[in-house]
Design goal:
The protein has 242 residues and is of the alpha+beta class. It contains six helices and twelve strands. It is globular and about 45 Å long.
């Protein structure tokens, strides 16, 4: 049984999006069961079956990216999947933009006119380096007319980082300090949802929805790299209809 998550945001009716969970697939532990990542050590035949199951409800084959925790957005309507990229955007109906995550934050984007969609894979490195800002800029138009939905990612109770990560964000924007809480061991708890909200606002995006659903704390529903190490990947997908 599949357990899709549909973004709760006021997107135009021709914008469709979903986020998969770990249930309803063919993979065995530690990838059970709907692992969509073909780079994590799972049996290729199982991943192929899982992707075929997903494809059956989509208008086209997802434009899978070669993610590198960077900031490069590509136009999924005409792209080279061999290039290292962590975000995609589209203006054509039927083009399915996709990112894979297992704790990193999927950031869904669309404009109010329903003419452009995008999605970004935002781990802390890509987030700090500006993957959100670059994706919003590449989508074109007025950023004030773009809305965002933040999908499931590791929550602040479980996202421990060092001082160097905190400083990386604060050096860019002192307001980022509010997203970090000191731990007793000298480390910091990081709120990736708040950090993304801050970066979206900086990019001019004020209509922000979602956030707060933790992948780490729900092993029955979500893969989590920080929790499990060897694990599968979930997909965030967004497309336009005609």
């Amino acid at each position: 049984m599949n357990d899709w998550i549909t973004p709760d945001w006021p997107a135009p009716r021709n914008v469709r999006a979903l986020f998969t969970t770990r249930t309803g697939g063919m993979s065995s532990e530690p990838y059970a069961s709907l692992n969509l990542g073909d780079h994590v050590g799972d049996e290729p035949a199982a991943v192929k079956q899982n992707r075929t199951l997903l494809r059956s409800i989509l208008p086209g084959e997802p434009r899978w990216l070669k993610q590198v925790h960077g900031t490069l957005p590509v136009c999924a309507d005409d792209y080279d999947c061999a290039a290292g990229s962590d975000a995609a955007f589209s203006q054509l109906p039927g083009t399915v933009c996709a990112v894979l995550t297992a704790d990193c934050l999927p950031v869904f984007l669309c404009d109010a006119a329903g003419s452009t969609i995008g999605i970004a894979h935002a781990g802390w490195r890509g987030l700090a380096a500006g993957v959100i800002e670059r994706t919003v800029a590449e989508m074109g138009g007025e950023s004030s007319r773009i809305m965002a939905w933040l999908g499931p990612a590791i929550g602040p109770a479980h996202f421990e980082v060092g001082e160097e990560v905190r400083q990386t964000f604060i050096e860019h924007d002192e307001k980022s300090a509010s997203a970090f809480t000191a731990r007793d061991n000298g480390k910091w708890s990081a709120d990736i949802f708040l950090l993304a909200q801050q970066r979206l606002a900086e990019a001019g995006v004020m209509a922000i929805y979602g956030g707060g659903v933790c992948t780490f704390s729900d092993p029955a529903r979500f893969f989590s790299y920080r929790r499990d190490g060897s694990t599968g990947r979930m997909a965030g997908l967004i497309w336009l209809t005609a």
